[in-house]
Design goal:
alpha+beta, BirA Bifunctional Protein, domain 2, seven-stranded mixed β-sheet
Length: 479
C-alpha cells in the first residue's frame, strides 16, 4: 500500500470521513462506518447520481428493493452455481489471494520493467485460462510457470487454486435448515429484474426505459483489504435499461459516453480515468467495459457498463413460470427485452473522490493538506468564523451561518486561530470560508476566502449565500 494511500486513510479517521467498524472492540475486518463528513460526502454523491439517472430522464424510474429475496432468485441469476472467485493460499504467510489478481500484478510488473513481450505472453495465457474449462488449474499453472511469489512473504509455496462462493447465507424463521436458507443479496440488479413488470406497468413506461436503484449488497470476500475499495458490505448505484433486441450495442455505446461524462462532472481529473475492456465476458453479456480510476493502489474499476442480453429476464421467466416478455403495441411484437446495465460502486466512488481531491501544498512557507472536492459534493459548502469571540462578532457569524444552512450545509467555528481554522476546513474540503472581523462592524462586509485559489474578497454580509452559490455553480477544477 502506497504512502499516499496511508495518508488518505489517516485523514479519513482524523477528520471524520470514515471509521473502522466496531473500533472499540478491535474492529471488524472489511467493514467501515461513515462519519459526519463521510456521510455528507456520500449523500451528495447519491443525490448527484439520482439527479443524473432518474430526474433528468423521463423514461427511468426508481425502486428500492428488499435485501432479502426468494432463494430461487439466486438460482435463476446463476449466483448459487457460479458466483465464485479463484483463490490461492500462500502457505508461508497464511494469506489468501485471488489467483487472477496475482497474475495481473505480475503482468504489470513485467511491463514496468520494460519486458513488454513477456507481459503480452502472460496476458495471452491469462485470457486463455479465464476461458478454460478448468479455470482454477489453468491459473495455477501460470503461477507455477512464472514463479509468482507471495506479495507479503516473498515465498513460492502455494496451495492449489480453489473456487469459493461469495454469498452470505442466513435463515428465515426459527428453524435453521435447508428449507429456510436464504441469502443476503450479492448485487442489487436482481431486485430490479424481478420488478420489471411492476415498474413498467405502474410507471406506464414503454421500451426503451430504465429502472434505477441505490442499495446495499453483500459479498463474503475472501480477500477484503484496501480500505473501502473492497468490503463485505457495500453500496451500489445501478440502472438497468431495457431495450429491443438488436438495439443493445447502440445503447451500450450511448451509456458508456454518458457515464464517463458523469464521473468527470464530479470534478475528477480526466487523466485519472480510462476505459478497460473485459478479457472475459460474463456468461450473460455480449459487451462489457469498466471505467477505471488511477488510485494510489493502481488502476481499478469504479463502474461497469454491461450489455446483459436477455439473460436475466429469460432466466426469471424460466424459474418463476411467469412471463417476463413485453408487448409492443406499435409493431404488434412480443419479446423479452435486452438489458444495458450501468453499475457503479458508491463506496469506490467515495474513495475515488477522496484520492482525487487530496493535495499537499506549500502556502506561505507552511505545508497544508487540502481536499479539493467539487463544491457540489463537498461535505461542508461554507464555514463561518468570528475573528474574535467578542464585540458581537460571534452573533453576526451565527446569523450568517443560520442563513447559509437554509441553502446548503454550513458550519460555525470559533476555536483556535484563523490559520488553524482554515487548515481544518482545508482538510474537510470546505470550498469557502467567511470571516467576520472588525470591518464587519463598521461597514457590514465580510471576507470570503477561496479554498483553491486562496483569494480573499470582501462582500456585504447579506450577499454571502448568493455569492457562494454563484461560485459553486461556476467552479472549475484546478490541477
Amino acid at each position: 500500500m502506497s504512502d499516499l494511500f496511508d495518508k488518505i486513510v489517516s485523514l479519513c479517521k482524523r477528520r471524520g470521513f470514515i471509521f473502522q467498524s466496531s473500533e472499540i472492540y478491535g474492529g471488524l475486518s472489511a467493514a467501515y462506518d461513515y462519519g459526519p463528513l463521510g456521510v455528507e460526502l456520500k449523500r451528495n454523491v447519491q443525490e448527484e447520481w439520482w439527479q443524473e439517472m432518474v430526474y433528468r430522464h423521463d423514461n427511468i424510474e426508481g425502486v428500492d428493493a428488499s435485501i432479502l429475496m426468494h432463494p430461487k432468485t439466486w438460482e435463476a441469476s446463476g449466483h448459487v452455481e457460479a458466483f465464485n472467485d479463484p483463490m490461492i493460499d500462500d502457505k508461508t504467510s497464511g494469506h489468501r489471494y485471488r489467483a487472477d489478481d496475482l497474475i495481473e500484478h505480475h503482468i504489470a510488473r513485467l511491463r514496468n520493467k520494460g519486458k513488454a513481450e513477456d507481459a503480452a505472453r502472460v496476458q495471452g495465457r491469462l485470457v486463455e485460462a479465464l476461458h478454460a474449462e478448468d479455470m482454477p488449474r489453468a491459473l495455477y499453472e501460470i503461477i507455477m510457470d512464472e514463479e509468482i511469489r507471495g506479495p507479503d512473504s516473498g515465498a513460492f509455496d502455494w496451495t492449489e487454486v480453489r473456487q469459493f462462493n461469495l454469498m452470505f447465507e442466513t435463515y428465515v424463521g426459527p428453524i435453521q435448515d435447508e428449507d429456510n436458507k436464504i441469502y443476503l443479496r450479492p448485487e442489487t440488479a436482481q431486485g430490479i429484474f424481478v420488478n420489471f413488470h411492476n415498474v413498467q406497468q405502474t410507471g406506464r413506461q414503454k421500451v426503451p426505459f430504465g429502472i434505477a436503484q441505490i442499495g446495499k449488497a453483500f459479498r463474503n470476500e475472501i480477500v477484503a483489504r484496501q480500505f473501502i475499495f473492497r468490503m463485505r458490505e457495500f453500496e451500489q448505484m445501478e440502472m438497468q435499461y431495457f431495450v429491443r433486441p438488436g438495439e443493445q450495442l447502440e445503447e451500450f455505446d450511448r451509456w458508456r459516453e454518458k457515464r464517463m461524462q458523469w464521473h468527470k462532472s464530479l470534478g475528477v481529473r480526466p487523466g485519472k480515468l480510462r476505459w478497460h475492456e473485459h478479457e472475459k465476458l460474463s456468461h450473460y453479456a455480449d459487451a462489457a467495459q469498466d471505467i477505471q480510476y488511477e488510485f494510489p493502489i493502481g488502476w481499478q474499476e469504479v463502474e461497469g457498463i454491461h450489455s446483459r442480453t436477455d439473460y436475466d429476464l429469460s432466466r426469471h421467466q424460466e424459474y418463476s413460470g411467469k412471463k417476463m416478455s413485453y408487448f409492443e403495441h406499435a409493431t404488434r411484437e412480443r419479446y423479452v427485452p435486452y438489458v444495458v446495465e450501468t453499475s457503479v460502486g458508491l463506496d469506490r466512488t467515495i474513495l475515488m473522490l477522496l484520492s482525487d481531491a487530496y493535495r499537499e501544498e506549500e502556502v506561505g512557507g507552511d505545508e497544508r493538506v487540502v481536499m479539493k472536492f467539487h463544491p457540489k459534493v463537498a461535505p461542508i459548502k461554507a464555514a463561518v468564523f468570528p475573528l474574535v469571540k467578542k464585540e458581537g462578532m460571534p452573533e453576526i457569524a451565527r446569523d450568517i451561518e443560520q442563513d447559509l444552512r437554509r441553502h446548503f450545509n454550513a458550519m460555525y467555528d470559533e476555536s483556535g486561530s484563523i490559520g488553524k481554522r482554515y487548515r481544518r476546513m482545508d482538510e474537510a474540503g470546505t470550498p469557502y470560508c467567511i470571516t467576520v472581523d472588525g470591518d464587519t462592524l463598521d461597514d457590514g462586509t465580510v471576507t470570503v476566502r477561496d479554498r483553491d485559489t486562496l483569494e480573499q474578497v470582501r462582500i456585504p454580509k447579506e450577499n454571502v449565500a448568493r455569492f457562494v452559490e454563484d461560485k459553486m455553480r461556476d467552479w472549475q477544477p484546478i490541477e
